[in-house]
Amino acid sequence: MIKGYFDDSGSHTSSDIVVMAGLFGYPNQWDYLSELWTKRLAAPCPGKLPLPRFHMSACQAGDEEFLGWKRLECDFLVDELIEIIRKSGVYGFGGAVPRKQYDALITGDLRRASGDPETACIINCFVKLVRFAQHITRTKK
User: Fold this and answer.
1) Which of 20, 24, 25, 129 lies deepest, with the highest CB count within 10 Å?
2) CA distance linking residue 23 with residue 106, whole number of Å
3) Is the pLDDT of residue 30 over 70?
């Protein structure tokens, strides 16, 4: 079994760019990622209180639970979380669609097949996940 998690940015607003990214891997990889992630959020940065969750947008903006954090502290935590993702062994994928150009180029039957920019990003993520699954099942035979 493969587990996956995908998230988006720019799809809830009239953002110029729609982004969809995801991680996927085996359950044991997810268990390890979750264990390391939980430990890091419990001690996110020297001198900082535990975090209930992590949202990159809040971290980058320095608001919500990151209010009062210095840029260096935010960058430290992001680097630590990236290392946890790498260490866990899960695989990642991301893609972006510029909304204005997509709307201008993808019209008619192609638009009916591909959907809006958000749908195109989601489809792209699932295609990558299926390709990954096909690759790992071929290598096990």
Assistant:
1) 20
2) 27
3) yes
